């Protein structure tokens, strides 16, 4: 049997640093295209319950690429350690195991790539969103793995973003993220500020308007109103801001986080309820009355996992990273 390549978290992180983000976006666009062309297979996922986690087992196949099985354990309580996960990739010809890749960072990257592709498509298709010389403001709720990937991929697809406001319920994690992003040379021209939703503290000026002396809620309202793109990347089951705050400046919202509870019922989502329409078989967060706000529900599909893991495995081979194990 041919050897199997085992790619650790550390090596996935090194590959993500070296990889061209455009290659990530192309891999994800191809996964969405394959899904639309009905050349993917994704059986229902299997869930195993443990006292502390729900372990999700998710097989999927892109006929034109390969098959993979991702296993992710979602903690039942808040965890600062992200989601433990691994993906087994099979060889497309022989169906033998080809690689075992740490999935912890990749889920965030593939989900953010979906949001970024949608945002780029929306901007490309709507001239009123972007005028020459405009600079854009991105507002991200949350400061975890998803928030970081969303900032990175949104800055890649929309280089017109000159300001990023990270709104988190606690300040230290948002500060850490600002420091981390600020240390990366490619973001040198972007002003990145942390804002604490509960106390109103921030690490820098939010806008030219004097809002720092105002109540946290008033400051947050101002932040929502200056945003061109908002990404809600939290575990919140309650609306993060009231819908009427969005005053119609042609903005885009990308939302992730839980929308169904474990029984498949619609649960409280992070977006204001007036942005969400329930259709027969799905929850489609579109705005029926508000033509000025476009919403992309960034759930992610299993085919994206197949594509991102195959890409990372190819790159690991190219860079000779990971342990090659006789099987
Ligand atoms: N759709 C998908 O494909 C997909 C994929 C992966 C993850 N997700 C979902 O995306 C969300 C974020 O994931 P992540 O990996 O970034 O998580 P994470 O690293 O644990 O970060 C969670 C963030 O949400 C904030 N938060 C938690 N509970 C909150 C609440 N009740 N109100 C306001 N903020 C709250 C936390 O704030 P503090 O720093 O103050 O704790 C933190 O900034 C999760 O719901 C996750 O399940 C979705």
From TrEMBL:
InterPro entries: NAD(P)-bd_dom_sf, ODC_Mu_crystall, ODC_N. Pfam families: OCD_Mu_crystall (PF02423). GO terms for cellular component: cytoplasm. SUPFAM superfamilies: NAD(P)-binding Rossmann-fold domains (SSF51735). It comes from the Eukaryota. Belongs to the ornithine cyclodeaminase/mu-crystallin family. This is Ornithine cyclodeaminase mu-crystallin family protein. It comes from Entomortierella chlamydospora.
